[in-house]
Amino acid sequence: MRILIVGYGMVGHRCASVLSELAAQRAAGDEPVSITVLSKEARPAYDRVHLTALFNGSTDADLTYDDPPGVEVVLGEEAVALDLAARIVTGAGGSTYAYDALVLATGSRPFVPPVPGHDLPGCFVYRTVEDVDAIKAYAAGRRVGAVVGGGLLGLEAAGALTSLGLDTHVIEFAPRLMPLQVDDAGGMALRQRISELGVTVHSGTRTEAVHAGEDGAAAEMLLAAGHDPSDQRTLPVEMVVFAAGVRPWDTIGREFGLALGERGGIKVDAHCLTSDPHVYAVGECAMAMDGRVYGLVAPGYSMAETAARHILAGDSKPFLGADLSTKLKLMGVDVASFGDAFGTTAGARTTLYSDESQGLYKKLVVTEDGRLLGGILVGDASAYDVLKPLAGTDTPLPADPIRLLLPPSDGEAVTLGVGSLPDSATICSCHNVSKGSLLEAVQEDGCATVGDLKRCTKAGTGCGSCIPMLGKLLDAAGVEQSTALCPHFAQTRSELYEIVLVRRIGTFAQLVAEHGVEGADVEGCEICKPAVASILASLSGRLGGPKHILSGEQAALQDTNDHFLANLQKNGSYSVVPRIPGGEITPEKLIVIGEVARDFGLYTKITGGQRIDLFGARVEQLPAIWRRLVDAGFESGHAYGKSLRTVKSCVGSEWCRYGVQESVAMAIELELRYRGLRSPHKIKAAVSGCARECAEAQGKDIGVIATENGWNLYVAGNGGFSPRHADLFAKDLSRQELIRAIDRFLMFYIRTAERLERTSVWIERIEGGLEHVRDVVLNDSLGLGAELEALMDAHVGSYTDEWRAAIEDPETLRRFVSFVNAPDTPDPSIEFTTERGQIKPLLTIGRRADRTDDVKDLVSAG
Amino acid sequence: MIKQIPVCRYEQLIPGRGVAVLLPDGSQAAVFRTAKDELYAVGNLDPATGAYVISRGLTGSRGGMPTVASPMLKHVYELASGRCVDGPAGPDPAHRLPTYPVLREAETVYVLEDPAIPRDGNAFVLDDAGAAAGDA
Ligand SMILES: Cc1cc2nc3c(=O)[nH]c(=O)nc-3n(C[C@H](O)[C@H](O)[C@H](O)COP(=O)(O)OP(=O)(O)OC[C@H]3O[C@@H](n4cnc5c(N)ncnc54)[C@H](O)[C@@H]3O)c2cc1C
Ligand code: FES
Ligand code: FES
């Protein structure tokens, strides 16, 4: 069976993943399945919902999804024709793709109101990574930007422009912001919070035109409040982002004979089948049974699941429509709306709580007999998780609605726990799992952790937003959640760190024997071994001198990346990332990297951390590659392992007209100081030479921004899946003060954080939060300052280049072969094709190398 | 006919780690020496991703049974049976590694392969896997 998916956005990717899973479960005798995806974008699928994270220090790699196993992805291929009778799709380049089942997941395209000047240079839309790149590039050096549209997308775009340092205006046609989700009063509260962040909101305002300046680019907007010419006014701007909504991208259905909805969208039935029995449509390009086109990702995921199961499993759950409840964080402001948010049900009554000074607005809609219908929460949506599942159920509210809305500090306030929800309440809307089925999993199947619940019920495996609720539910059910690191240690990672430090324990074997759970297997496991290896490595300076992370027993504890000192990639090859401190590199060294990549046939890509990543090396090539790099003066870059990655920098005051300090020199100093430092999770850092913040330091664990008087230190920022703006930690530090503060901060983090806990999560989890950490680091409130500094000094003093040490040790070198019994044979399973002039892994699930003849001799010789 | 394929000298194996072995038919096995100095061999192909990387996984134990965690998506396989006992979505009966008997004679480690037994589908386990695979 040939399955073809057109469109590789969030929903197309989900559909491919479900199909891939179902295909893997098929029995041996079943008809073989092939899954192909055509992606118009020239990049793998990514998390569009978190696009704005790209403005806060995340890289596109952070948002990119892995291709599901066994799925063939054709990037940069647009489907332009569809022959329903012959069941063939044609790509823009003329390639044809025959199918037995076709899934259209072409999503939406931005809607740009056809006002004069909408296509001038300086006008943008906001939908793809390329849009982000274009906006970033154009915004550099500009000061004022406007966003057309004050809904979800518009406010996302406004957040993006403000984080680029632009004065931002939002123009919304409706009288309030987010007209679809909140009411007038909610819109007011939202407007107030957003204005405090420096955004100017023009609501009830139409964009009439964009006018060009002398250079032919957008320079001014013509706005109007009413229909009278006297209502018109102009707004000087330097760039405009149109985020006024989307339209289903249904072209292929429209032109080739599929039935459409009146206002667009490919019509589908409950199985997501279109008017053709071999063609499905899912996500934003489809018009569902209830006549709606859903512009949110969760309904798209449900549709993807329905279609995939209908194709391969025959047991699909019909998609009849979805709930439009949403909880969002826009520019740091909570906005949630759920159920009958506008009180349209007959006899509905509303209860309001609002506090203008705090920008808070909360509303509940209830029936005459006290059952919850829906609500709106602006400024604080913490009650959403328990209120939403109650909406529309028969359970009466356990307290007077107003008491549920009062701030917790008020004596009358009632905080609802998950205990007050009825069993029928839906906790996970992605997979439609009720509280009752979760409790059953706890009581009958013995689920005792969030992980168990995910496995058992699938709850929490979609968008992930219900995960905190799963934890609370376990608490409420009286299940004590173990903090044990793994079955071998009852302690947490931070407790083990203290033990190793105080008792000066030097090996895993000793630690597990003396402090493991009773009868713990010396074998350990893939959780405790690397965690302990990291503790031992970060204390190696203290525990008796430099020790290579691959020496002695430690060799067996390291994750594969640390074991091979390189990054494992999807086909079993590795990537090598030479350290380029601060991103500064001489032309000679740049040439060496190019030569090495060319000579070893590696794929090269510039990383977000200002380095060059060389992909596609087989294990036995690694030492030869390092030899070349080490000889040219490079050393290992820790792109692998839980350790300092890079210290990114902008060019700073040596070259930049705006710079006030030498940011490159500082970045190099920091990178050389903290390189090789093993930590609970990876650490990223950046240094900007002035407040324009070109290095995006506020999206890093450690961010340094130059001021006229020295350096401001920011901590605990994060990009990726849950972006977090760094907190300002200390102002106007001298070089010495800065380094001391970072030394102490990092060592305190390494000491007290749990396994795989980034600084951003740690600082919010640790008791006392940011204030406590600041007290410990700057005021030495625990009297640990000197010890933390001494630990860091020990690390700095004992640092060695891990690559050099590896290639100089014959014992270690011997491990770098593909096959122990055929050391001269390269792994034949690692194969490449070419794309855009470079190699790319060729991977087919379950493929056996069938080179029986060539290898036989080699093996018998071994 | 059962073949005895030499792997390497015993002392070349690091306790707690694995090595990859090329078999005469072109397939690959992963041979492990556990921290307790037992020997196991399973297929080197990670069924979840199609990459030949099992030998580079970390060994460990689950409920007293020796295991290896694939370095790709962290599926955990029992070394003796090849069963997938844990993974991103829990135990997964659809994924199973073939197993091979291993033995140590003097200082050399061997993998035994019986070409008559197909290894593509379900795992092949000797009746008494522990004894056959262990370094008794
Ligand atoms: C900035 C931003 C923030 C958002 N925030 C949220 C949020 O907080 N919550 C939420 O629920 N939703 C949010 N969304 C909406 C969410 O991203 C979409 O609902 C979701 O991406 C829809 O997925 P899809 O796969 O249907 O469409 P898309 O992700 O748009 O993917 C469709 C893909 O198909 C490709 N394509 C189109 N035509 C063809 C063709 N002929 N051949 C081949 N390929 C083709 C397109 O190039 C595109 O890559 C946000 C969107 C944006 C832009
Ligand atoms: S609500 Fe999305 S995963 Fe549960
Ligand atoms: S000098 Fe201003 S950000 Fe670099």
Question: Which helices and strands occur, and which strands form pairs?
Answer:
The complex is a heterodimer of chains A (862) and B (136).
Chain A (H helix, E strand, L loop, with lengths): L1 E5 L3 H15 L9 E6 L20 H4 L7 E5 L3 E5 L4 E4 L4 E3 L2 E4 L3 E3 L12 E3 L3 H11 L4 E5 L3 H12 L3 E5 L12 H13 L2 E4 L3 E7 L5 E7 L7 E5 L2 E4 L3 E3 L2 H5 L10 E2 L11 E3 L4 E2 L9 H16 L13 E5 L2 E7 L9 E7 L4 E7 L5 E7 L5 H7 L10 H5 L20 E3 L4 E2 H9 L6 H8 L9 H10 L16 H11 L4 H8 L12 H11 L21 H5 L2 E2 L5 E3 L10 H14 L2 E4 L5 E6 L4 H10 L12 E6 L13 H12 L8 E6 L13 E6 L2 E6 L11 E7 L1 H18 L6 H7 L3 H10 L6 H14 L3 H6 L2 H4 L17 E5 L2 E5 L9 H10 L1
Parallel strand pairs in A: 1-2, 1-7, 2-3, 7-19, 9-16, 10-11, 10-16, 11-12, 18-20, 32-33, 33-34
Antiparallel strand pairs in A: 4-5, 5-6, 8-17, 13-14, 14-15, 21-22, 22-25, 23-24, 24-25, 26-27, 28-29, 29-31, 30-31, 34-35, 35-36, 37-38
Helix pairs in contact in A: 1-7, 13-15, 20-22, 20-23
Chain B lengths: L2 E7 L7 E6 L5 E6 L5 E5 L14 E5 L2 E5 L6 E3 L5 E3 L12 E2 L1 E4 L2 E6 L15 H5 L3
Antiparallel strand pairs in B: 1-11, 2-3, 3-4, 4-9, 5-6, 6-7, 7-8, 10-11
Bound molecules: flavin-adenine dinucleotide (FAD) and FE2/S2 (inorganic) cluster (FES) (2 copies).
InterPro entries (chain A): BFD-like_2Fe2S-bd_dom, BFD-like_2Fe2S-bd_dom_sf, FAD/NAD-bd_sf, FAD/NAD-binding_dom, FAD/NAD-linked_Rdtase_dimer_sf, NasD-like, NiRdtase/SiRdtase_haem-b_fer, Nit/Sulf_reduc_fer-like_dom_sf
Cofactor (chain A): FAD; [2Fe-2S] cluster; [4Fe-4S] cluster; siroheme
GO molecular function (chain A): 2 iron, 2 sulfur cluster binding; 4 iron, 4 sulfur cluster binding; flavin adenine dinucleotide binding; heme binding; metal ion binding; NADP binding; nitrite reductase activity; sulfite reductase (ferredoxin) activity
